[in-house]
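Researcher: We plan to redesign the surface later, but first we want a full-length starting point. Tokens attached.
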């Protein structure tokens, strides 16, 4: 552009530059809808999730005066009467505003068992006059329940009052802070086991799709065009059926009185129905069936471009069919295999609906627990922390894949 502008008159150079800017603006306007979609569908939700995982102003907004009074408390014994009176005043206000349940939920997450205590205390203080609370609020609070006289309760309130906290990330990896602020293991180990089980199940599903999909894609790639197209219809057929229908079909097949158990009993192979549903087995089986096309399609696309004469040449030069396949065909099909494995693994590690329907308690994955905290327990902060760690885990695994395999070698078609 610079060389051309030097040979043009100043007015022509300005017109040329203006035309270039116009073309660039036009190209950018074509991309704007995609950018807007990415911002609203991906960037904004992920940013919100990361922010919610450390931001929780609920307690700070409900009892700000109590938290201010607790700043001078040493953390040992019962706080001063002024703190108790202020908290009793806040409790009556929240009972009248019907917001005491929010405080109960937040305190209960830090100290299990405090939900009922907080709600019952709020109901009791709601019937007390303001003058009585101002003069005798500390005694009324301690009479309502003995747990208000424990230092652990007030430490839980103080900790829950932090607007920004990494405590939910600690909970996500089964850790917590003790009284001295040291990071220790929680009494209940839940989430690390769920992450481990999710990774294990995703690897098993990926391995099964490779075992089933590679021979099928190989056969389709070397079959006639008519037969390959016919088989491709069956590969694509699941995409024409609702995911919910495909998942519930496995319930009909695997349940106690389902097709599989009835057939096995009719053949005399088993005497009693097998437990095939609501466990890891049913989750892995159903997800393998659902995700198999994501392995077959990239494999088939790559294998169709491999010249079969390479294999024949290797065999004619004395190599065995297995040796020719392992040294020539497998490396050439590796881009499709890597793409299919990456697709299946990333999709399966965050799958939700299939484990929720056929997995039961034993076959659930980390995505089901995230949904539970968002929909049932309303602990959005913990759900956001769990989701953020899952996102980080996927990014790390993708980096390792790129480091040892290379994303440049991926081919989807």
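Model: Full-length starting sequence:
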């Amino acid at each position: 552009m610079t060389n051309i502008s030097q040979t043009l008159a100043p007015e022509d150079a300005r017109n040329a530059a203006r035309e270039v800017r116009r073309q660039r603006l036009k190209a950018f306007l074509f991309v704007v809808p995609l950018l807007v979609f990415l911002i609203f569908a991906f960037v904004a939700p992920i940013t919100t999730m990361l922010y919610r995982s450390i931001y929780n102003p609920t307690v700070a907004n409900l009892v700000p005066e109590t938290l201010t009074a607790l700043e001078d408390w040493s953390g040992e014994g019962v706080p001063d009467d002024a703190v108790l009176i202020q908290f009793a005043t806040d409790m009556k206000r929240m009972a009248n505003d019907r917001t005491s349940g929010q405080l109960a939920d937040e305190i209960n997450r830090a100290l299990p068992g405090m939900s009922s205590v907080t709600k019952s205390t709020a109901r009791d203080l709601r019937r007390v006059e303001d003058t009585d609370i101002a003069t005798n609020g500390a005694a009324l609070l301690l009479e309502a329940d003995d747990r208000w006289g424990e230092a652990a309760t007030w430490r839980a309130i103080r900790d829950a009052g932090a607007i920004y906290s990494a405590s939910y990330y600690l909970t996500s990896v089964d850790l917590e802070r003790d009284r001295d602020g040291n990071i220790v293991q929680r009494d209940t180990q839940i989430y690390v086991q769920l992450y481990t089980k999710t990774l294990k199940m995703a690897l098993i599903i990926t391995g099964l799709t490779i075992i089933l999909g590679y021979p099928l894609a190989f056969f389709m790639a070397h079959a006639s065009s008519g037969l390959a197209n016919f088989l491709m219809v069956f590969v694509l057929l699941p995409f024409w059926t609702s995911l919910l229908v495909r998942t519930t079909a496995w319930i009909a097949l695997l349940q106690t009185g389902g097709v599989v158990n009835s057939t096995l009993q009719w053949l005399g192979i088993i005497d009693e129905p097998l437990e095939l549903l609501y466990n890891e087995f049913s989750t892995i089986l159903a997800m393998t069936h659902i995700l198999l096309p994501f392995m077959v399609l990239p494999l088939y696309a790559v294998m169709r471009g491999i010249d079969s004469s390479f294999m024949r040449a290797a065999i004619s030069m004395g190599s065995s069919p297995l040796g020719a396949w392992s040294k020539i065909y497998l490396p050439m099909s590796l881009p499709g295999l890597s793409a299919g494995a990456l697709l299946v693994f990333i999709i399966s590690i965050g799958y939700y609906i299939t484990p929720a329907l056929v997995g039961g308690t034993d076959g659930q994955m980390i995505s089901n627990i995230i949904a539970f905290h968002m929909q049932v327990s309303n602990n959005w902060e913990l759900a956001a922390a769990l989701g953020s760690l899952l996102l980080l885990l996927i990014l790390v695994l993708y980096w390792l894949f790129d480091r040892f395999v290379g994303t440049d070698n991926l081919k989807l078609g």
